[in-house]
Design a protein that fits this description.
Blueprint: H1 14-37, H2 45-61, E1 85-87, E2 96-98, H3 101-114, H4 119-122, E3 129-135, E4 138-145, E5 148-154, E6 160-162, H5 165-168, E7 186-195, H6 197-210, H7 218-226, H8 231-236, E8 239-249, H9 257-266, E9 276-278, H10 281-294, E10 302-309, H11 312-318, E11 320-321, E12 324-325, E13 328-332, E14 336-349, E15 355-366, E16 369-375, H12 379-385, E17 392-397, E18 404-408, E19 433-434, E20 443-444, H13 451-462, H14 474-482, H15 489-492, H16 495-501, H17 514-526, E21 529-531, H18 532-538, H19 546-556, H20 559-569, H21 575-582, H22 587-599, H23 601-613, E22 615-617, E23 632-636, H24 644-653, E24 657-659, E25 668-671, H25 677-685, E26 688-690, H26 692-699
Bound molecules: 2-(butylsulfanyl)adenosine (IVH).
2-(butylsulfanyl)adenosine binds near residues 94, 135, 139, 325 and 328.
């Protein structure tokens, strides 16, 4: 504070007052910026308030000295340009799902199989779970250092979220300072921000009176309220927080889930009162039913029940699969249904040419979400339902799944109704649209001449699991396609040259400026070097999902080797083709699709143009120094201690190659009971044959399981309004 700060305001001379006002004004402005724009407060609230009070007192004593730029003349804070990004110290995971008792039993069995060698479990220790409501809000990570809230971040893509610290400070039940004692110096508490149903109804009523935006459901209202650039708006919205998980923590206060949540409670967090600790599937199911029965009476939306293994050492052993913990799952409530009318049937053309019919609906509220379109899947589904335009239909929505039409109320149909005729030409390019062979999907035959397929392939190319270019999303790539700067993937890497040479460079476009354009070009440059498996996945070949791309990358090592082998594999009788098909998880269909893709001149030429722009990194070195690194393994017969996928994931994590058939190259055949022809072949070839137990002994039991990812492309996003 200024030098005269200790003098009571009454004792200040005019000169002192003038100089102190200048000083205070500057200090407060800096603190405001730190708090509101940078989301990084530079002083405590108490000190800030004291500065403000001193300024106000001096200004009321000397009104003629009030400066034009005084903080007292500002209303609110200048909004920041957007939220800054935060990389989570530990990723924020998602959850797998179960829907039925059988799924739940399978979840429990899987965990038991994974822990089969655990000495405590073998000795009869109880496997307990926690069961608690799955809150339908948005997840938030709160970082406390020395007990003080220093950072709040949204989930984002799980790895990078948005810095919403100022907004989180405006949520009444989020502690700014931890209560009690025993908290570690670094603690990230994770949980759900939500809006109570009653608060949501009152907010919408207020919004309606003001003629402001009406929210579709409490979740949207919570998300819209938390992600306000002006935190004072967040403060005016009644948000709440339940703590249920954690990220980085210096030392945990307990060795069970229940224990940690108990500690959170003593440190000032609200935790869900319906959480229970249970020791068998029947009790989990009973608790699920109890929570489901209380659903309507709860003042917050929930969409299921989350089960978590209680012991933290077991959680650690179980690890994760596909960005979700193996030790937890969400038991989802059954789909919600509603009745509405079909206004139109539109045909969307996907990146592989698939024509997907979409019903445009009279908007309807389905379990709290307004829905205006639903998928009709394909031509056969339309025929099966005999669904027609203007029909009254029942639609259902389950979780994040695309809403779908389930039944048609034929009695409500008008007399002039006519069956829907599925197009025989692609609506985007006019090429013939046909379903080949056994395929029920009608596809456009236009290939890359079809603008819809081209643009969908480009969208896929830049998607998160592919090139993941920051600032180049679906909207931007479509705009660059429309103005013809980007017609194929290689063009992305000459975008800045295109822009430079243009009369209307990118920084002059609406919504763009020099900064954002430069940032985009830099993000593109950063992706000139790309992992082999990402490149493969980005090509958008049918059946070539992320998992398959990883298998291929791991098998061939680098792109040159792969391209060489693929050239040889064009010959159906070649050993290159046989080798390709023998990779476990590949098979005829996938191999055929890839070989066929590369046999098309326009594809291989486009790929070569792309490769001219890129440096492709070889596949990550797999584990070495393990007993099975570099060995080729085949599993056959029934495995009793793990599923095939688990066995495979584990073997690959240890650097082994898992093949689908036995050949002279096979190092080990792991044969369970009921092994048949593969066993015979292995015996004939003199391959080393192991039982499941011998295999487990070989790889030793306490190696952590590997992380695997979803194989398939995500379905297109449908618009909920
Ligand atoms: S635990 C490590 N518990 O569900 C596991 N998640 O589908 C992290 N969610 O992103 C999640 N209530 O936003 C957990 N009681 C609860 C939850 C919960 C809601 C959300 C959370 C997460 C999503 C996963």
């Amino acid at each position: 504070m200024a030098g005269s700060a200790d003098t009571p305001v009454e004792g200040l001379s005019e000169a002192e007052a003038r100089s102190e006002l200048a000083q205070l004004g500057m200090e407060i402005t800096l603190h405001d910026k730190a708090y509101h724009t940078d989301d990084a407060p530079s002083v405590s609230d108490a000190i800030y308030d004291a500065l403000r009070m001193r300024l106000n007192a001096i200004e009321s004593k000397y009104p003629t000295l009030v400066r034009a730029d005084s903080p007292s003349k500002r209303v609110g804070a200048a909004p920041s340009a957007g939220f800054s990004k935060v990389t989570h110290a530990k990723p924020m995971l998602s959850l797998g799902n179960v829907f039925t008792l059988e799924d739940l039993q399978e979840f429990d069995m899987r965990i038991r199989r994974f822990l089969a060698n655990d000495p405590d479990l073998k000795a009869g220790a109880t496997l307990a779970y926690t069961a608690e409501p799955k809150i339908d809000g948005l997840s938030l990570s709160l970082r406390y250092e020395e007990g003080i809230l220093v950072m709040a971040a949204t989930r984002g893509d799980g790895t990078v979220g948005e810095n919403v610290t100022a907004n989180a400070r405006a949520v009444a039940n989020i502690p700014q300072k931890l209560l009690g004692e025993g908290w570690p110096d670094v603690l990230e508490v994770r949980g759900e921000v939500y809006m109570a149903k009653s608060d949501f109804a009152a907010l919408n009523e207020k919004q309606r009176e003001k003629g402001a935006k009406i929210f579709a459901n409490p979740r949207n209202a919570a998300a819209g309220s938390l992600r306000q650039l002006d935190a004072s708006i967040t403060a005016a919205r009644p948000l709440k927080f339940f703590a249920y998980a954690w990220g980085e923590v210096l030392s945990l206060p307990a060795d069970t889930q229940t224990g940690v949540i108990e500690a959170f409670k003593t440190w000032g967090f609200d935790v869900n009162p319906l959480m229970a600790r249970l020791t068998n599937v029947a009790d989990l199911m009973a608790h699920f039913e109890l929570i489901e029965a209380s659903r309507a009476a709860l003042d917050y939306d929930i969409d299921g029940v989350v089960y978590k293994v209680d012991r933290l050492d077991w959680q650690a052993k179980l690890g994760m699969v596909a960005r979700a913990p193996r030790w937890a799952t969400a038991h989802k409530f059954p789909a919600e249904k509603a009745t509405t009318t079909i206004l139109a049937i539109e045909i969307q053309v996907g990146r592989t040419g698939a024509l997907t019919p979409v019903a445009k609906l009279e908007p309807v509220n389905v379990g709290g979400v307004m829905v205006s379109s639903a998928t009709l899947h394909n031509r056969d589904e339309i025929a099966r339902l005999d669904v027609r335009i203007y029909d009254t239909v029942t639609i259902q929505r389950a979780g994040d799944v695309i809403p779908q039409v389930v039944t048609v109320d034929v009695d409500k149909r008008g007399g002039d109704s006519e069956p829907y005729e599925f197009p025989t030409k692609c609506p985007a390019c006019g090429s013939h649209a046909v379903a080949e062979g056994e395929d029920i999907v009608v596809r456009c035959t236009g290939g890359l001449i079809c603008p819809a397929q081209r643009v969908e392939r480009l969208k896929h190319f830049v998607s998160r699991a592919a090139f993941d270019i920051e600032g180049l999303g679906v909207k931007q790539i479509a705009a660059f396609y429309d103005n013809s700067w980007v017609q194929e993937p290689a063009d992305i890497f000459t975008l800045s040259a295109h822009s430079d040479a243009s009369d209307e460079p990118l920084d002059k476009w609406e919504g763009w400026g020099p900064q954002s354009a430069t940032k985009l070009f830099a993000a593109i440059e950063a992706r000139r070097t790309i992992a082999f498996h990402r490149l493969l996945f980005a090509l958008g070949v049918r059946h070539l999902g992320q998992q398959t791309a990883k298998l291929i990358a791991r098998h061939y090592g680098d792109i040159d080797h792969f391209m060489g082998e693929m050239a040889l594999a064009q010959d159906a009788e070649s050993s290159a083709r046989a080798d390709f098909i023998a990779i476990d998880g590949i098979g005829d269909v996938v191999a055929g699709a890839i070989i066929e893709f590369l046999a098309e001149d326009h594809n291989s030429q486009a790929l070569n143009r792309l490769l001219d722009q890129l440096t492709v990194e070889p596949a990550e070195a797999v584990a070495s120094g393990t007993p099975v690194a570099g060995k080729t393994v085949v599993f056959t017969g029934t495995l009793t201690r793990m599923t095939r996928n688990e066995a495979k994931a584990r073997a690959e994590a240890l650097g082994a190659k898992v093949a689908g058939s036995v050949s002279a190259k096979t190092d080990y055949l792991v044969a369970g009971p009921a092994a048949g022809s593969k066993l015979k072949k292995a015996q004939a070839l003199g391959v080393n044959i192991l039982s499941e137990d011998e295999w487990l002994a070989l790889i030793s039991s306490d190696t952590p399981p590997s992380e695997t990812e979803d194989a398939d492309e995500k379905p297109a996003q449908f618009d909920l309004i």
